[in-house]
Amino acid sequence: MLCVGLDPDPARFPEVVHGSVFDFCRAIVDATAHAVCAFKPQIAHFAAIGAEPELEQLCTYIREQHPEVLVVLDAKRGDIGSTAEQYAREAFDRYGAHMVTVNPYLGTDSVEPFLRHPSGAVFVLCRTSNPGSGDFQNLLVDGEPLYLHVARRVATEWSEIGECGLVVGATYPDELREVRAIVGDLPLLVPGIGAQGGDVKATVAAGHDSAGFGMVINSSRAVLYASNDADFADAARAVAEATRDEIRTHALR
Amino acid sequence: MLCVGLDPDPARFPEVVHGSVFDFCRAIVDATAHAVCAFKPQIAHFAAIGAEPELEQLCTYIREQHPEVLVVLDAKRGDIGSTAEQYAREAFDRYGAHMVTVNPYLGTDSVEPFLRHPSGAVFVLCRTSNPGSGDFQNLLVDGEPLYLHVARRVATEWSEIGECGLVVGATYPDELREVRAIVGDLPLLVPGIGAQGGDVKATVAAGHDSAGFGMVINSSRAVLYASNDADFADAARAVAEATRDEIRTHALR
Lengths: 253, 253
Known about the structure:
The structure is a homodimer.
Chain A: E1 2-6, H1 21-32, E2 38-41, H2 43-47, H3 52-65, E3 70-77, H4 81-94, E4 99-102, H5 108-116, E5 121-127, H6 134-137, E6 140-141, E7 144-145, H7 146-161, E8 163-168, H8 173-183, E9 188-190, H9 200-207, E10 215-219, H10 221-224, H11 232-251
Parallel strand pairs in A: 1-2, 1-10, 2-3, 3-4, 4-5, 5-8, 8-9, 9-10
Antiparallel strand pairs in A: 6-7
Helix pairs in contact in A: 1-3, 1-11, 4-5, 7-8, 8-9, 9-11
C-alpha cells in the first residue's frame, strides 16, 4: 500500500545526478519500485522549473519499466467542464497517468471529464493533510463537516460516473476513520506520513477497507531525501522498504 | 474592465495561423489590447498540448508589447504550503503573471505562498460560473452559503497577508451582489459573459465597487472564435470593442 511521491527539488539533489530531474527520479523509481503500489509525481515541482518534458519522460519510463506500478498524477485540478476536459487530456493522454488528484470545490461538472475519460480515474481531495485544511473543510453543514459531504457525494453520485477514490491526510486519523465509514471500500490516497508527521499504525488502523487494505499511503520527502549523498538511491530503498514493512505489519494485524 | 481569456483550441483555429498557438494568441492580443485591462491565459489549454513554451513566449510578449495590460494566469491552483510555493514560482517567476487564480479548499497555508511572493496577487475562487458550482459552494454553513464564508475570509484574513480579489461568475448576478456587499472594494474577476451566457448589464449592476468599477469581466470564446476565417483578429477586435462599450455604458450609468 506504499506510494512514493516524486517531488523533485534540484536544490536538494545529491551532486552525483548533476541537477538532472529525470536522472534523480529514475534512480528513486528503480530503487523503490519493488516496494510500492504507486508513484505520485507532484506536477508543481516539475512546472516550477519548466520540466514538463522530464515529467513526460518519467511517466513513460515508469509505465514501461515498472508496468505493475500505478502512476498517480498529483495535480489537484479543478475547473469548469470545458477546461476540465483539457486537464483530463493533460493527465491521461499527455502524461499517461492512471489516476489524477482533483479538487471538488467546483462541483460535479468539473470532475466529470476526468471520470468519463476512457482511461480516467480520480482521487478527490476530501480532508487534506496541511495545517489550514480545516479552514473550510471542517465547516459544519447540517451538523457535519464539509469534507464528509464531499466524501458522501464521491461515494454515491460520482462513483456511478467513473472510478473514484478520496484523498484523506494521515495527519488526521479520526477524520480518516469517519471518511472510511462513509465511503465503503473506495480506495483512499493518504499523504502525510514521513516528513509531515502522520503515524503509520494509526493511519492503517483508521483507514483500511473491509479486506484490511484499500489505501495508497504516500511518503515523499522522507524517501527522496533520505540521503543527499551518492548513496541516495540506496537510502531511499531502505526507507521505502522499512515503511512498506511497517504498513504491512499493521495491515496484517 | 474587459478581460479577454486566452483559451487556445487548435481545432478551432483559422487555417491562416497554421495551427500555431503563439501566432493565434498574438494576433488576438494585438487586435484587442487597446480594449482590455487584462488578458487571462487558461493554462489547461496550453498544458493539454504541451504548449508551455508558447505560454511563456506569450506572457513575455504581452508584458513587453502591452505593458499597460495585466496578465492573469488562470490556473486555479490549490495545494499544501510547500507545493503551493512551487506553483507560485510557476505563475510569477516562470510565466511572469501579475495575478493567478487559486482554489480556497485547502485553506490559508495553501494560498499564503502566492500572497507572500514579492510580485504575488491572487483571485480566489468564490462562486464559479459553471452548472455544478452550487454542489458545494451553496451548502449552508451557519445559515449562509459556503462561498460567502470564502468571501469573508478573503476580505479579512487573506487580504491582510497580500493582494486578493475573488472570482464570481457572471452567470449568478444575485450571488455577485451578495459577495460585493461582503468584500468592500476588492477586485472581482467575473467570467461567464459571452459563450457562457452571463448578462453584461446585470453583471455590472450587481458587481461594481463604490466607484462604479472594480471588476475584471472576462470573455473568452466569444472573442477568440468570433470568426474562424482569415479575418479572425478583426472579428475578435469588433467583439472586444463592442463588449467594452457595453460594459462602459452600464458602468457609467
